[in-house]
Amino acid sequence: MAPSRKQQVIDLLKSLETKNPAPFAYVNPNKYIQHNLQVGPGPEGVAALIQKMPPDASVNTIRVFEDGDYVIAHTEYNFFGPRIGFDIFRFEDGLIVEHWDNLQETATELSPSGHTMIDGPTAVSDLDQTQANKALMQRYMDDLLAGRRETFPSYFNGIAYIQHNPWVADTIPGLIAGLQALAAKGRAVVYPHPPTLPMSSRMHYFPNRRPPDHRIALLRVSHVFHPREGLIPSTRPAEFHYR
Fold it and tell me: How far apart are CA 80 and CA 61, in angstroms?
């Protein structure tokens, strides 16, 4: 029996460290769309990337989620320097046919509230809340991309809100202060244009302990929301301009 889709993604990412070619069997050799501009097209591009990896490269996938044809991995990388990455893979007919990712340098210090970029829950629970979480985050993203800032407070649990951005503190006052400080340093969080991907591939939703008032209670690095019952990775985390 073939490994689960989640395990296939874990194995494929791990091959950057092990240089094991076996996980290439999970990639469609005739249809593999690569959105990382630093990697060549098709499985050959991935193989070439692996050959460029330093001998001490390491890959540790912290959490991985599956929604329909998409698998999303949150991974700790160390090659040419430590980084935290989000990878999104799309499956078709049992094989990987498309890949998006975003990498950010690993913070050298804890956040103002003592968090790392990768700590927090890794398991998914309360799957019966998935559809409600999807609707919540669909509304939030619609308002965010339309610039309807007056609606934002209604989405967040200001007291329970946990922030994994290394430069921003927990709680809504911490978020506001942190974003203002980033903007003052020329690191404003901006959306230059709405993502061009369809919403089905732009956002993925995973329930995990939502608070009674159904508001967002956690923000992870690179645009991941956790409404206590939802882990919602974005397929376009690069729109957060922290670099």
Answer: 17
pLDDT, tens digit, for every residue of 148-205?
878 887 888 877 888 888 888 888 888 888 878 878 888 776 665 554 443 333 443 3
Helices (H), 89-238: 130-146, 172-184, 199-202
How far is residue 99's CA from residue 45's CA, in Å, rounded to a whole number?
12
User: In the beta sheet, which residues pair with residue 71?
Assistant: 66, 89
Amino acid sitting at position 45: G
Q: Classify residue 222 as left (phi > 0), alpha (psi -120 to 50) or beta.
A: left
Q: Read off the tokens for 104.
A: 């950010």
Question: Which residue is associated with the tokens 């690191």?
Answer: 187
Residues 122, 127, 132, 134, Cα dihedral to 10°: 50
How far is the C-alpha of 131 from the C-alpha of 32, rounded, in Å? 30
Buried b (16+ CB within 10 A) or exposed e, 120-134: beeebebeebbebbb
User: In angstroms, what CA-CA distances link 69 with 6, 62, 176, 229?
Assistant: 11, 20, 35, 21
